[in-house]
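Tutorial, part two.
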Amino acid sequence: MVLSNKESVIWSYDKHTKTTGLLMHYLGISIRDVKRTNYKFVDAYLGDMNNPREGNNLLLRFTPNKELIVKFDLLLKLYSGKEHYMIDDDVVVIFPIGNKYDKDVERFKNGEYSKLNKHRIEYLFGDDDIRYHICVKSEELKERLEDELGIIVTDDMELGPKPNPEKEILNYAVGRIPKGSWPDSNIS
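Running the prediction step on this input gives:
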Protein backbone atom coordinates (compact mmCIF):
# COMPACT_ATOMS: atom_id res chain seq x y z
CA MET A 1 0.00 0.00 0.00
CA VAL A 2 1.26 3.47 -0.90
CA LEU A 3 0.23 6.80 0.57
CA SER A 4 -1.66 8.91 -1.94
CA ASN A 5 -0.43 12.36 -2.98
CA LYS A 6 -3.38 13.82 -1.06
CA GLU A 7 -2.32 12.09 2.17
CA SER A 8 1.32 13.05 1.95
CA VAL A 9 2.59 15.99 3.90
CA ILE A 10 6.10 14.60 3.75
CA TRP A 11 7.37 14.54 0.17
CA SER A 12 5.22 16.78 -1.98
CA TYR A 13 6.00 18.29 -5.35
CA ASP A 14 7.75 21.62 -5.31
CA LYS A 15 10.24 22.85 -7.89
CA HIS A 16 11.18 19.48 -9.42
CA THR A 17 9.71 16.10 -10.25
CA LYS A 18 10.32 13.05 -8.09
CA THR A 19 12.28 11.73 -11.07
CA THR A 20 14.76 14.57 -10.43
CA GLY A 21 14.59 14.24 -6.65
CA LEU A 22 15.21 10.52 -6.40
CA LEU A 23 15.53 8.52 -9.60
CA MET A 24 18.13 10.71 -11.33
CA HIS A 25 20.46 10.40 -8.33
CA TYR A 26 19.72 6.70 -7.97
CA LEU A 27 20.75 6.08 -11.59
CA GLY A 28 23.98 8.04 -11.08
CA ILE A 29 23.24 10.87 -13.52
CA SER A 30 24.90 14.13 -12.56
CA ILE A 31 24.22 17.58 -13.96
CA ARG A 32 27.00 19.43 -12.12
CA ASP A 33 29.10 19.93 -15.25
CA VAL A 34 26.25 21.65 -17.06
CA LYS A 35 27.02 24.84 -15.17
CA ARG A 36 30.02 25.27 -17.48
CA THR A 37 27.67 25.44 -20.45
CA ASN A 38 25.18 28.22 -20.91
CA TYR A 39 22.30 25.90 -20.14
CA LYS A 40 20.26 25.68 -16.97
CA PHE A 41 18.83 22.35 -15.81
CA VAL A 42 15.02 22.51 -15.81
CA ASP A 43 13.86 19.05 -14.73
CA ALA A 44 14.00 15.30 -15.35
CA TYR A 45 11.12 13.20 -16.66
CA LEU A 46 10.29 9.53 -17.23
CA GLY A 47 9.01 10.03 -20.75
CA ASP A 48 7.56 12.39 -23.33
CA MET A 49 3.97 12.07 -24.52
CA ASN A 50 4.80 13.37 -28.00
CA ASN A 51 8.11 11.57 -28.39
CA PRO A 52 7.60 7.99 -27.15
CA ARG A 53 10.57 5.63 -26.95
CA GLU A 54 11.10 1.93 -26.39
CA GLY A 55 12.05 0.91 -22.86
CA ASN A 56 12.64 3.13 -19.86
CA ASN A 57 14.28 6.48 -20.53
CA LEU A 58 15.20 9.41 -18.38
CA LEU A 59 14.80 12.78 -20.10
CA LEU A 60 16.76 15.79 -18.88
CA ARG A 61 15.49 19.19 -19.98
CA PHE A 62 17.78 22.22 -20.22
CA THR A 63 17.04 25.81 -21.13
CA PRO A 64 19.60 28.25 -22.56
CA ASN A 65 20.75 31.32 -20.71
CA LYS A 66 19.50 34.03 -23.08
CA GLU A 67 22.10 36.57 -21.91
CA LEU A 68 25.05 34.45 -23.04
CA ILE A 69 26.07 32.90 -26.32
CA VAL A 70 24.55 29.44 -26.37
CA LYS A 71 27.21 26.74 -26.34
CA PHE A 72 25.03 23.87 -27.45
CA ASP A 73 28.07 21.83 -28.55
CA LEU A 74 29.51 21.89 -25.03
CA LEU A 75 26.25 20.59 -23.55
CA LEU A 76 26.26 17.72 -26.01
CA LYS A 77 29.95 16.98 -25.37
CA LEU A 78 29.12 16.49 -21.71
CA TYR A 79 26.49 13.98 -22.74
CA SER A 80 28.30 12.63 -25.78
CA GLY A 81 26.49 9.97 -27.72
CA LYS A 82 23.14 10.81 -26.13
CA GLU A 83 20.20 11.43 -28.39
CA HIS A 84 18.55 14.83 -27.98
CA TYR A 85 15.78 16.98 -29.42
CA MET A 86 14.38 20.49 -29.00
CA ILE A 87 11.18 21.70 -27.37
CA ASP A 88 10.83 25.37 -28.18
CA ASP A 89 14.27 26.75 -27.16
CA ASP A 90 14.96 23.96 -24.66
CA VAL A 91 17.14 20.91 -25.23
CA VAL A 92 15.98 17.49 -24.04
CA VAL A 93 18.75 14.90 -23.61
CA ILE A 94 17.66 11.25 -23.58
CA PHE A 95 19.29 8.74 -21.24
CA PRO A 96 18.23 5.18 -21.97
CA ILE A 97 17.96 3.33 -18.68
CA GLY A 98 19.71 0.01 -18.98
CA ASN A 99 18.08 -3.31 -18.17
CA LYS A 100 20.05 -3.34 -14.93
CA TYR A 101 17.67 -0.74 -13.49
CA ASP A 102 14.37 -1.78 -15.11
CA LYS A 103 13.00 -3.33 -11.90
CA ASP A 104 14.05 -0.32 -9.87
CA VAL A 105 12.40 2.08 -12.31
CA GLU A 106 9.16 0.09 -12.10
CA ARG A 107 9.40 0.12 -8.29
CA PHE A 108 9.88 3.89 -8.41
CA LYS A 109 6.88 4.34 -10.74
CA ASN A 110 4.74 2.28 -8.36
CA GLY A 111 5.91 4.20 -5.30
CA GLU A 112 7.62 1.10 -3.87
CA TYR A 113 10.56 3.05 -2.51
CA SER A 114 11.39 0.55 0.23
CA LYS A 115 12.12 -2.06 -2.46
CA LEU A 116 14.96 0.04 -3.92
CA ASN A 117 18.52 -1.03 -3.12
CA LYS A 118 19.09 0.00 0.51
CA HIS A 119 22.89 0.24 0.16
CA ARG A 120 22.51 2.62 -2.76
CA ILE A 121 19.97 4.74 -0.86
CA GLU A 122 22.25 4.91 2.20
CA TYR A 123 25.19 5.89 -0.03
CA LEU A 124 23.24 8.65 -1.83
CA PHE A 125 21.18 10.18 0.95
CA GLY A 126 22.10 10.83 4.56
CA ASP A 127 19.78 10.21 7.46
CA ASP A 128 18.97 13.93 7.49
CA ASP A 129 17.28 13.56 4.06
CA ILE A 130 13.56 12.76 3.74
CA ARG A 131 14.27 10.53 0.72
CA TYR A 132 16.42 8.33 2.94
CA HIS A 133 13.65 8.00 5.54
CA ILE A 134 11.04 7.21 2.90
CA CYS A 135 13.18 4.53 1.23
CA VAL A 136 14.33 2.79 4.42
CA LYS A 137 10.91 3.17 6.09
CA SER A 138 12.42 4.67 9.22
CA GLU A 139 10.56 4.42 12.51
CA GLU A 140 11.02 8.17 12.95
CA LEU A 141 9.11 8.89 9.74
CA LYS A 142 6.43 6.28 10.52
CA GLU A 143 5.76 8.02 13.84
CA ARG A 144 5.72 11.44 12.19
CA LEU A 145 3.21 10.26 9.58
CA GLU A 146 1.00 8.73 12.24
CA ASP A 147 1.03 11.97 14.25
CA GLU A 148 0.49 14.31 11.28
CA LEU A 149 -2.05 12.20 9.40
CA GLY A 150 -3.80 10.56 12.34
CA ILE A 151 -3.42 7.10 10.80
CA ILE A 152 -1.71 3.87 11.75
CA VAL A 153 1.16 3.12 9.39
CA THR A 154 1.29 -0.62 8.79
CA ASP A 155 4.35 -2.58 7.70
CA ASP A 156 2.99 -3.02 4.17
CA MET A 157 2.63 0.75 3.62
CA GLU A 158 5.17 2.84 1.74
CA LEU A 159 6.00 6.13 3.44
CA GLY A 160 5.93 8.37 0.36
CA PRO A 161 3.34 8.93 -2.36
CA LYS A 162 3.63 7.42 -5.82
CA PRO A 163 5.07 9.67 -8.52
CA ASN A 164 2.27 11.49 -10.34
CA PRO A 165 2.34 10.75 -14.11
CA GLU A 166 0.91 14.22 -14.74
CA LYS A 167 4.15 15.68 -13.38
CA GLU A 168 6.63 12.99 -14.41
CA ILE A 169 5.78 12.83 -18.14
CA LEU A 170 7.25 15.77 -20.05
CA ASN A 171 4.58 17.05 -22.40
CA TYR A 172 1.88 16.61 -19.83
CA ALA A 173 4.03 18.52 -17.36
CA VAL A 174 4.50 21.46 -19.72
CA GLY A 175 0.79 21.63 -20.51
CA ARG A 176 0.75 20.38 -24.08
CA ILE A 177 -1.67 17.52 -23.47
CA PRO A 178 -5.17 18.31 -22.20
CA LYS A 179 -6.15 16.36 -19.09
CA GLY A 180 -9.01 14.61 -20.87
CA SER A 181 -6.63 13.00 -23.35
CA TRP A 182 -4.25 11.33 -20.89
CA PRO A 183 -3.38 8.10 -22.72
CA ASP A 184 -2.39 4.78 -21.25
CA SER A 185 1.10 5.01 -19.84
CA ASN A 186 3.83 2.73 -18.60
CA ILE A 187 3.41 4.41 -15.23
CA SER A 188 0.83 2.59 -13.17
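The first strand starts at residue 39 and ends at 45. In part three we will examine how such features are distributed along the chain.
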